Amino acid sequence: MAKPGNVLIFDIWQDIRRHLVIYLLLLLVVISAFSVIYFTHLNRQTTSELELLLTDRDELDIEWRNLLLEQNALAEHSRIETQAQKLLEMSRPDAESEVVIRLP
Asked: Rounded distance, CA 50 to CA 41, Å?
C-alpha cells in the first residue's frame, strides 16, 4: 500500500499536468505584469533625467549668452581706450610725437 504523503504528491502532480496550460498562462501574466511595472519605472526615471538635462542646457545657454554680452562689452574699443588711459596712463600720440620707421 502507498503512503498517504506519496498519494498526495502524486495527486498534486496529476493536477499540475492536467492544468499545465493554465499555470503557464498564469505565470506569463505575472511576468507581464512585473515587466510593465519595471518599464514604467524605467520610463519615469528616464523622463526625470531628461527634464534635469534640459534644465541644465537652458542654464548653460543663458550663461553662454551672458558671457557673449560680457565679451562684447569688454572688447569695445572705447572701453579699452578708457581703461588704457585710466590704469596705464596711456594717451594717443599726437602728430609731433609719432616716429615713422622705414625698412630698407
From this structure: 14
Closest CA to 28 of 39, 16, 20: 20
CA distances from 97 to 33, 80, 85, 91 (A): 89, 22, 17, 11
- Asked if 85 and 91 count as a contact pair (C-beta separation under 8 A), the reply is yes
- pLDDT by residue (tens digit) across 48-103? 999 999 999 999 999 999 999 998 887 788 878 888 888 888 888 888 888 888 88
C-alpha to C-alpha distances, 62 to 2, 36, 49, 67, nearest whole angstrom: 83, 39, 20, 9
